[in-house]
Amino acid sequence: MLFRWDLAYHCLVCSRPCKRQHTRQLYPYLTGSFVITMDSVTESQRTLYPYVTGSSVVAIKYKDGILMAADMGGSYGSTLRYKSVERLKPIGKHSLLGASGEISDFQEIMRYLDELILVDNMWDDGNSLGPKEVHNYLTRVMYNRRNKFNPLWNSLVLGGVKKGEKYLGTVNMIGINYEDNHVATGLGNHLARPILRDEWNENLTFEEGVKLLEKCMRVLLYRDRSAVNKIQISKITEEGATVYPPFSLRTYWEFKAFQNPTAGAEGSW
Amino acid sequence: MTKSLDIPPKGGFSFDLCRRNDMLEKKGLKAPTYLKTGTTIVGLVFKDGIILGADTRATEGPIVADKNCEKIHYMAPNIYCCGAGTAADTEAVTDMVSSQLQLHRYHTGRESRVVTALTLLKRHLFNYQGHVSAALVLGGVDITGPHLHTIYPHGSTDTLPFATMGSGSLAAMSVFESKYQENLTREQGVNLVVEAICAGIFNDLGSGSNVDVCVITRGNKEYLRNHLQPNPRTFVNPKGFTFSKKTEVLSTKITPLKEKVEIIEADAMEE
């Protein structure tokens, strides 16, 4: 069943359907011998819809680590508002995070992760959080927010290498998480995963991996309306994370059928 | 007061029972699901003509109703049409337009053109405002050359070098977008179509079983039913099926069904 974020559900405070989050505050006003309590009701501050969104992220395991690709567009509904949004960020020494969905929630997640990594560094015990641990942390955060009906509207891809072991996982706004050799978010699941299922193998070199990711991003560019032709690829290996400068893909539009589609029937479409 | 005469409806759907159906659903009656062909269908233009492909699974909600149905329908000797959506709608609409095309062929004495089938289909579907849930990939080769079109349930059409429809269309389209080129040979084209349908079969839950392919060229067509069967039954009993109790055969009598009929030459009737 789909949960409707904008509808009113049965509220245990008001004992009737309401959309609000109630906060009870005690303001003792002494009038005579009474203590009056005030119940302040705030309008709902749950996430109802996403506003500025990023499109799909695609990631694969390759020989030396993880390769991840995303475009740099931030759409405001059907407008392409921001064209230089970096959606791939390194986390700590061992991980790389790619996010699609609401950009402000992604920035909030970055703040949570910064705090997490800071506390981890402060222990100063020679150990650092690996990708599995960060993925687990994110899963708990996303699932608990979803249980409070106030989700972080993102689909995240978390990849990394620690002590030679590669890890690639994903978690989305309702808390569904899994790990695999290749993951994608959003429309990437329908357009990129079939290609990856056919053409991925254990021993891709860096060049082969980039070519495979470019193939997937090109199909997404043709067929996803919220895709932009400004792609960023990033890799993470045992040595560390590198986010490469953005580039654009070559596209082909010269099919004969596109030149004169109504050649057979004048006036048709 | 004179009662107005009941004029029988001339055509189109009658929505009289919709209110009553809504009321029944509110009371908890579950409407019967219709047989959908949650599908992958594709078409592409190659050097000498058109190649159409389809999977063979027909679903009724979550259940596979038909493991090996035919989704590539005959329209004319040089035109074939793949159908996705409600199975009854695709069957009925392609049959109807196919017979209209044949009458038209008798009337004009010429080979049918793909744009004729296209216009007949799109006019019918638009007339029913999307309620006839048929999404079609129409392809054929006529005197003006090879043509490939997609037709959506509301009646819009596209002319394309390669096309996919159905629930597995994104998986098949990802294969086409990355691998299609112009002027493919027959072998390359068939391989690409098979690859696209397999992407649909293995990545989409609404598609499955076998791959049907149809190659249409000028003056020739090849309907390759079950061209590829990538989902065979894994465990087949080598002994076959035996009935447990054997009935005794008491006597055997064989009667041939075809009788020999004598034709007597009669005088022709005088008019």
From TrEMBL, chain A:
Family as reported in the entry's similarity comment: Belongs to the peptidase T1B family.
Keywords: Cytoplasm, Nucleus, Proteasome
Protein source organism: Trifolium subterraneum (Subterranean clover)
Quaternary context: Component of the 20S core complex of the 26S proteasome. The 26S proteasome is composed of a core protease (CP), known as the 20S proteasome, capped at one or both ends by the 19S regulatory particle (RP/PA700). The 20S proteasome core is composed of 28 subunits that are arranged in four stacked rings, resulting in a barrel-shaped structure. The two end rings are each formed by seven alpha subunits, and the two central rings are each formed by seven beta subunits. The catalytic chamber with the active sites is on the inside of the barrel.
Alphabetized InterPro entries for the sequence: Ntn_hydrolases_N (IPR029055), Proteasome_alpha (IPR050115), Proteasome_beta4 (IPR016295), Proteasome_bsu_CS (IPR016050), Proteasome_sua/b (IPR001353), Proteasome_suB-type (IPR023333)
Keyword Nucleus carried by entry: yes
Species lineage: Eukaryota, Viridiplantae, Streptophyta, Embryophyta, Tracheophyta
Cytoplasm found in the keyword field: yes
Subcellular localization: Cytoplasm; Nucleus
Superkingdom of the organism of origin: Eukaryota
BP GO terms, sorted: proteolysis involved in protein catabolic process
Gene Ontology CC annotations of this record: cytoplasm; nucleus; proteasome core complex, beta-subunit complex
Function statement: Non-catalytic component of the proteasome.
Name of the featured protein: Proteasome subunit beta
SUPFAM superfamilies: N-terminal nucleophile aminohydrolases (Ntn hydrolases) (SSF56235)
UniProtKB/TrEMBL annotation, chain B:
InterPro entries for the chain: Ntn_hydrolases_N, Pept_T1A_subB, Proteasome_bsu_CS, Proteasome_sua/b, Proteasome_suB-type
Subcellular location per the Swiss-Prot or TrEMBL entry: Cytoplasm; Nucleus
Coiled-coil intervals, chain numbering: none
A GO biological process held by the record: proteolysis involved in protein catabolic process
Keyword Kinase: no
Gene Ontology cellular-component annotations: cytoplasm; nucleus; proteasome core complex
Catalytic site: 39 (nucleophile)
Main subcellular location of this protein, as a coarse class: cytoplasm
Catalytic activity: Cleavage of peptide bonds with very broad specificity
Protein's job: The proteasome is a multicatalytic proteinase complex which is characterized by its ability to cleave peptides with Arg, Phe, Tyr, Leu, and Glu adjacent to the leaving group at neutral or slightly basic pH. The proteasome has an ATP-dependent proteolytic activity.
Assembly mode: Component of the 20S core complex of the 26S proteasome. The 26S proteasome is composed of a core protease (CP), known as the 20S proteasome, capped at one or both ends by the 19S regulatory particle (RP/PA700). The 20S proteasome core is composed of 28 subunits that are arranged in four stacked rings, resulting in a barrel-shaped structure. The two end rings are each formed by seven alpha subunits, and the two central rings are each formed by seven beta subunits. The catalytic chamber with the active sites is on the inside of the barrel.
Family from the record: Belongs to the peptidase T1B family.
Name this polypeptide is given: Proteasome subunit beta
Organism from which the protein derives: Trifolium subterraneum
